[in-house]
Write a structure and sequence with these properties.
7 strands; metal ion binding; alpha/beta; 39% helix; 5-stranded parallel sheet; 11 helices; two-stranded antiparallel sheet
């Protein structure tokens, strides 16, 4: 799903059922997430979620929440495991400047409708130049006061200049983004509650671990439309899955010539392959130099020192 004009050659519900069948046949554990645009505008969203649950998937959705009401919440409870509601400001003034007049109050009301359900709730927040300070100053009080301290996850992500946002100068510097996350976390997590999060070995950059399927059938092996690897409408579903599964295996750091003897391979994951793939190079070509490795080592030391200082 996307937020552009409607595709009149969109994937049919029958095709979505076939995609779910293929995924459930291949993977023991898998996650289906409906995004957009606005997934609640798609007439078959309940059918997709219900069938995916029957096939053993964990289900999720990212929504602006506007179309939620008591009946819709009742329909979703039991077939939707995770729901992230988009919010781009911790006050009405900032959020509504970005998302539209009156949206902030509507989101607060919808979140309260979901409070006593079995759906795990989250806030999907994009950190931008126009809201970074507002989030730092007000996000904690928003959850504690506007949402009555409800148990809710907070996902802070950086602005990506793609799609309709490609011409917006909203990117924040990586250092400011990191400090916003740290500042926010410090307000929500006390010293008594804090615990280190284990880091598991990274087998690759993430290529092929996610299949991003667009309404017109295009399939990307990661969360970007910059590299399309087949079309679920025009190509056989099984073939598209095979292509991406095989390429994922080829991208494993224990197989890549540049990576397989590197001590950092299971921390780095081999780096992002999209830069090389979009210019026609192979999945086994990695861009890496000593400066990159040095920065990664310094960052590891910094993280370790921050952990033991708590």
């Amino acid at each position: 799903m996307d937020s552009g004009l409607k595709h009149y050659d969109e994937i049919t519900l029958e095709k979505w059922i076939a995609i779910i069948d293929e995924a459930s046949h291949r993977y023991d554990k898998w996650f289906l997430s409906l995004t957009g645009g606005e997934p609640l505008m798609y007439k078959g969203h309940l059918d997709i979620l219900k069938y995916a649950k029957e096939k053993g998937a964990t289900t999720g959705m990212i929504s602006n929440g506007i179309l939620l009401n008591q009946n819709k919440v009742k329909d979703l409870d039991g077939i939707l495991d995770h729901l992230q509601i988009s919010l781009d400001g911790a006050t009405a003034e900032v959020n509504d400047r970005i998302r539209g007049k009156g949206v902030f109050d509507k989101v607060v009301k919808r979140l309260k409708l979901l409070k006593n359900t079995n759906i795990r709730l989250g806030l999907n927040v994009v950190v931008m130049k126009s809201n970074a300070e507002n989030l730092r100053e007000n996000l904690h009080s928003f959850v504690m006061e506007e949402l009555d301290g409800m148990d809710i996850d907070i996902d802070l992500s950086s602005f990506v200049s793609e799609g309709r946002g490609k011409d917006l100068a909203e990117n924040v510097e990586s250092e400011k983004f990191s400090s916003t996350i740290s500042f926010t976390a410090d307000h929500f997590v006390s010293e008594d509650d804090w615990m280190p999060t284990p880091s598991y070995p990274r087998r690759n950059c993430g290529y092929g671990n996610t299949l991003d399927i667009y309404p017109n059938g295009d399939v990307s092996p990661c969360l970007t439309p910059r590299f399309i690897r087949g079309n679920i409408i025009n190509d056989e579903i099984q073939n598209v899955f095979n292509w991406i599964d095989n390429e994922r295996e080829d991208s494993l750091v224990d197989r890549l010539p540049e990576c397989k003897t590197c001590d950092l391979r299971h921390i780095c994951g081999g780096g992002c392959h999209l830069a090389t793939l979009t210019v026609g190079q192979g999945i086994n070509q990695v861009e890496c130099d000593d400066l990159y490795k040095e920065r990664m080592l310094k960052n590891l030391v910094k993280q370790f020192e921050a952990t033991i200082s708590r």
